[in-house]
Amino acid sequence: MGKKKIDLKSYSMRTLREWILAAADMFMVAAVFFATALLTQSYVVDEYGSEYVISVLISTPVVVVCFFLFFVLFKIFKVVWRFARIKEYMRIVLACICGTLLFTGVDQLAHFVSSHEFIVGDVYRGFPVYIVMAFSTSMSVAVMHLIYEMLYSYWTPRIKPAERKRTMIVGAGSTGSTVVEELSRKNSIYIPVCLVDDDLEKQGRTIDNVPIVGSTQEIPRLATKYSISTIIFAIPSISAQARKSMLATCMSTGCQVKVLPYISELVGTTDMVSQIRDINIGDLLGRPQIAFTDKGVAAYIEGKVCMITGGGGSIGSELVRQIVKYKPAKVVIVDVYENSAYEIQQEILRTYGADYPIRIEIASVTDRDKMDELFMEHRPKIVFHAAAHKHVPLMETNPEEACKNNIFGTLNVAQMADKHGVEKFVMISTDKAVNPTNVMGATKRCCEEIVQMMAQSGSKTEFAAVRFGNVLGSNGSVIPLFREQIKNGGPVTVTHPDIIRYFMTIPEAVSLVLQAGTFAKGGEIFILNMGEPVKILTLAENLITMMGYTPYKDIEIKFTGLRPGEKLFEELLMKEEGLQKTPNEKIFIGRQVTIDKPWLMEQLQKMHDICATNDKEAVVEQLKVLVPTFNHDKSYLRAISGTGKIVASGEGAAQGVIGSKPVAEEQPAGGRKADKSKRAEKKAGKADKKEVKKAEKSAGKKAKKKAEE
After folding, report:
1. What's the CA dihedral at 34, 35, 41, 42 to 10 degrees?
2. Which of the following is catalytic: 432, 444, 567, 616?
3. Is 670 a domain residue?
4. Is 432 annotated as catalytic?
């Protein structure tokens, strides 16, 4: 269980190649020994003739065994010789020397024990035989492998020169030199033309006949001068900010940009070319991938039944991928959308075998009886609750559905976890739960309160929540939207030029969730140190450049105004929470807030009754009671009619907004106050539009100036 499925055909072919290589090497060792023994003691052959030759033949199997042992020990048969370097050939030399020393000991010992197998008369092999043997076997086996490499390279179909891409390597350090060497020796589509490096001592020199032509500041000029079509960034140890700046310079050339991962993400120090990848938006965050130790994770997952609600989503499916590595007894995916759940199930079965214990349960967390039935059937010990409605604008128009799924779905699963003796319950939360201005954030804050309430009720289950920012590439995130808009020729829509967000990758988010399970003792809200926030405008500009276009020239960026419930910036912590450190320097704990259980349960019952009526206005008002920090943005009320219904025209309607209370109800009805309210409302609307236009114009001017430079 937990082991990856072995491709038997591939395994058999690999084993066959290794045995063929072993046979060839040992044949060469035997032949060299036979020739050495006869040539270095030719006078013995003259005196004893065939008798001595027979004694050499008898000794040959012993030589082969001695050498074979050290060839296996030094893993000579495991090397891919067509990509071998000097250190691989040095392993051959060491193996041959060690094999010779072992045979020397055996041969000399046999001389004193018996005079029949290894010696003839009073003559036995002298030490010159062993010395020549070590040298000749090393040279012969190494040359044989070198010839194989040359023949393989000669017979392999070569890429036509016209099809190869002229490539610049950024970085002339050890990594850059390895990349140049590998590209020069492999039949690669990339042909290294030049290198750039900021070290003045390196400039003007060459690496494998490829010149180091200048500094990184000169990349745009040098790319034009040498007709470069691809740039490979090969400085994995550089700081995050410097990397981000250099990548921006590389992308400004219009060339295809490839990168090597951060040094912490590199797999080994050889075969660098196979690790080269396209630049992705994660490279533009200005920080490396946060690596979490898995210490302690296996201890609470291995051998346990793990249930993941929302297991077909972007976060849920990654949870499944990482959890299966720790050998759980069974994985249970609970999701209402069958297609995504089926996809992750098939992925796991392809990777780990058709008999891997993974179950799909198509069910909604809002169905309390069904949840009870599933917990009773599977008896999970670990529950990761990722099922939720997360789309901010859609939840503004459907607050009752957000509450049904997020709040009462969490309450159902949490209570079932408590009832059925679950050991750990970890809920996925969001930074939008802190001082929320939108319905989605308010419902997630309410979910956090439920988790803390359960922890403070004396439950044996360890309840915890994990709070993080936007996840790059997740369903509904801004990156897929931007990509689609760029593919369609633009414009790319950004709500505000100054809007900023914290970002993390899906693996980082899931690693945080698993770590939270390790540290969880009951009621904690775990928070990730995600570095500096990123401007969405900068993200859009970088993404446009990354996809080979020029912002504002090829692809327009349009500012649409903040959406209902959207903030210019998100917070990770409420004032009353504070921060507490954990053994992981990247993870903190927000101090628990005491929950009044009778009051909360009473208000939840009221919300349940209101949701049953589908009264959007009443749902939002009750959310404000449940979450006192909920400061609902009412700017969209300008697009709402006096009945509280959605207006089917205008900008507000296009963005999908709902009514909380009619504007007339917020001021005393009738007379001057009502008229004054309307005039103020109209004036505010004009001011907002004017602000957005002003910001759009300012950003456009800056971009135009940047493009001209």
Report:
1. 120
2. 432
3. no
4. yes
